[in-house]
Specification:
mainly alpha; 10 helices
Amino acid sequence: MLGVIVNTITVILGSTIGLLCKRGIPKKLTDAVMTGIGLCTVYLGIQGLLAGQNVLILIAATVFGAMVGTLLDIDSGINRLGDAVQNRFPKKDEKVSVAEGFVTASLLFCVGSMTIVGSFNSGISGDHQMLFTKSFLDFFSSMMLSVSLGVGVICAAGFVFVFQGALVLLAMAVGSFLSPSMIAEMTCAGGLLILALGLNLTGITKIKVANYLPALVFAPLFAYLVELVKTLI
């Protein structure tokens, strides 16, 4: 769990620095920075997509993930959590809701390829190197995001700890049963979510990305089924 703890701390530190500095940064500069972060996020999403080995698995995982996520209304649930924080600590001068900052930052920090592969490396072999690298990147990302999206970004640190910690514990429990192709398809599905998030950050779309999170579960499951069918044929 060392990598998860370090990542959580860097998000808190970066967000705090961004919040302290935000009043001295003009809006046109923060808008430009947000667009830049959005474009970089699109790139990271495309990079994650390239890890996939079977596009049919991605399509099936996305379709089933969207159905389950929409029925459960995961996006609204996460937004309600952010709204609860905002109601507890209201900020009249905030141009962006705490919920929007919380959801955007949580997804950006938690569904990328570095999160998935890094957490599994940490849980299976105790190799925290990728999570340490991710922590360095998240430090600067959280700093820039908090300038534009406010206090919701620092709240995302809790989500980072719970989500990545759960992945590490999952890897420790079942990591030996996960094949490289299962991890690759999970990474690919995560790349698609990151791509969608990047499009949201640039203002091109308003996709409810959180409703697609179940795709991260369906992707390795379908990859396993494909492997099973191949061994039977």
